[in-house]
Write a structure and sequence with these properties.
With about 180 residues, the protein is mostly helical. The protein has 2 domains: about 120 residues, Non-ribosomal Peptide Synthetase Peptidyl Carrier Protein, Chain A (Orthogonal Bundle); about 35 residues, no CATH class. The chain is about 60% helix and about 5% strand. The protein is built from 5 helices and 4 strands; from the N terminus they run ααβαβαββα. The protein has a two-stranded antiparallel sheet with strand order 1-2. A two-stranded antiparallel sheet has the order 3-4. Helix 2 crosses helix 4. The longest helix is centred in the middle third of the chain and has 41 residues. The radius of gyration is 30 Å and the shape is elongated. The C terminus is likely disordered.
């Protein structure tokens, strides 16, 4: 019985981790967002493309992969696919359009979040540079090779991976070439 308890406890720990919950929320929001993008493509973009291309409806484009019986209705994708296999390239084109729209929207969302994150980090950096009541000791120094700001106790630059000299040598500009 104690083995079952440990498995249950491990499962609780796994489920309650922030990453798993965040992933579940992301999947749920992504599924809901996919229906919005699907509607955008089906109800707005595809008709616009149809107007531009002279009435072409991609969702109903297909090739028959069989010889239909004489008099069989194969005028729509649903009717043709009920009689045999079809190559539904129109549905594929619609899916590609859905994917591209989703990728573009996600790109702009991530870009906006990165911009906000950068602004937040700038504000935090500015607040940390404000003089305090005590003497502020800088926690950063500049890498003499790539000139990026790194922690004062770093012995190797995380950006250019250069081996750094002792703290007293890197803080003086006379050691640079």
């Amino acid at each position: 019985m104690s083995k079952n308890k440990t498995v249950i406890n491990e499962f609780k720990e796994f489920i309650l981790r922030g990453n798993v919950v965040d992933l579940a929320v992301g999947v749920i929001i992504g599924a809901a967002f996919q229906s919005i993008v699907g509607s955008l493509v089906k109800d707005i973009i595809s008709p616009l493309i149809g107007v531009i291309t002279g009435g072409v409806d991609f969702s109903n484009k297909f090739l028959l992969l069989y010889t239909p019986q004489e008099g069989a209705d194969v005028s729509t994708l649903d009717a043709a696919s009920s009689l045999g296999p079809v190559f539904a390239y129109g549905a594929f084109i619609t899916s590609v359009i859905n994917f591209l729209i989703m990728a573009i929207v996600i790109f702009f969302m991530v870009k906006a979040l990165n911009t906000l994150r950068g602004k937040t980090q700038q504000i935090i950096a500015q607040q940390s540079k404000l003089p305090s009541s005590g003497a502020a000791v800088s926690q950063e120094k500049q890498c003499p090779h790539c000139y990026k700001q790194i922690h004062v106790k770093a012995t190797r630059c995380p950006y250019c991976t250069s081996q750094l000299e002792e703290q007293s040598k890197t803080s003086s500009p006379s050691g640079q070439n």
